[in-house]
């Protein structure tokens, strides 16, 4: 499995799905959101599951920036 990064998917009405997903899942989700002919349901692969997301309900996607460091 490829490297996992934190990603939040916000839905209409306010719920947010916070996951650690693969780069491929993020790229596929962003591509599908920009494609009017994409399937309504999109799969997101996480470290322990596969999640199906209804693209018609997604209002934003936020992904952590690059390397996150803690400390000095």
Q: How many structural domains can be distinguished in the coordinates?
A: 1
Output the strand order for the largest sheet: 2-1-5
CATH class category label: Mainly Beta
What would you call the structural class? alpha+beta
Strand tally is: 5
Q: Rounded to an integer, what's the Rg over CA atoms?
A: 13 Å
Low-confidence stretches: none
H and E order: EEHEEE
Helices, by number, come to 1
Which CATH architecture is right?
Answer: Roll
CATH topology-level fold name: SH3 type barrels
- Average pLDDT metric: 88
Indicate the topology.
Elements: E1 4-11, E2 16-22, H1 23-33, E3 41-45, E4 50-54, E5 58-63
Antiparallel strand pairs: 1-2, 1-5, 3-4
What would you say this structure looks like, in words?
- It is a single chain.
- Strand 1 and strand 2 (16-22) form a beta hairpin.
- The chain has one helix spanning 23-33, and strands spanning 4-11, 16-22, 41-45, 50-54, 58-63.
- It is globular, with a radius of gyration of 13 Å.
- It has one helix and five strands; from the N terminus they run ββαβββ.
- With 72 residues, the chain is an alpha+beta fold.
- The mean pLDDT is 88.
- The chain has one domain: SH3 type barrels (Roll).
